[in-house]
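Sequence in, structure out.
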Amino acid sequence: MSHPLDPLSADEFRRVVEVVGVGERWRFASIELKEPEKGASEPRAAIAVCWDRDSGDAYRAVVDLEAGSKTWERLEGIQPNLTPDEWHECDEVLRHDPRLVEALAARGITDMSLVLIDVWGYRGFLVPERWAGRRLGWTDTWFRTSPGSNPYANPVNGLHCIVDLNTMELLEIEDTGSVERPSIMGEYVPRFVPDMRVRDDLRPVEITQPSGVSFALEGHALTWQNWALRLGFNYREGLVLHGVSFAGRSIAHRMSLAEMVVPYRDPSEDHYRRTAYDIGE
């Protein structure tokens, strides 16, 4: 019997997908536990955010896991977060697009197997009016000097793609000219770092607990000395701590670090649209 605050199980994730019951052209942006209100007794439920790639319409579904029913809410004027599937599909599609292949060849890059394309969510007032209403991605391009080397050591400056992520259509290439490669070496793997010697003068470190651990974990309930809490997890916040107490005294009902935003604050063409906002972009 699961606790109301336990994260969704694998079977519950499958149940949500089954109850939502959308077609192959839909994507799920997220599925997470719908946490009950403090002190309330509610049926175990989940929240799913998904969208139709053909129409672009996005929805939030609340799924009652016990009754196998759902309620729908249309998300007007909202694009769900970028998904890993879109990232990989965009990379694969663009590396075979003749227009991008030609633009990279003009920069002396002809081996597309060494190219990496990052796609970022492209949102809000930054989007050109001609592409308004579409689910857009904006890309960076990088390349490896050798298979397995660090692509981020070699940015392809001044070259970006605008992509419709629902159709995976390359809408536009922004080519503001090539910028010289950085003069510094940006490799980390030892075999790619000139004159790198792996240290062999370190003595072993051994950490053992021959009598076992000092905490107890029953399901998601954790106790350790005077501390007691319940572990939760979701796609946006990661670790969530519920019902944190010390020596029987309540410390917090719920604790999490939702996410962090990194505005790069560089006004150049290569950076001004780049804002790393984790899941909430």
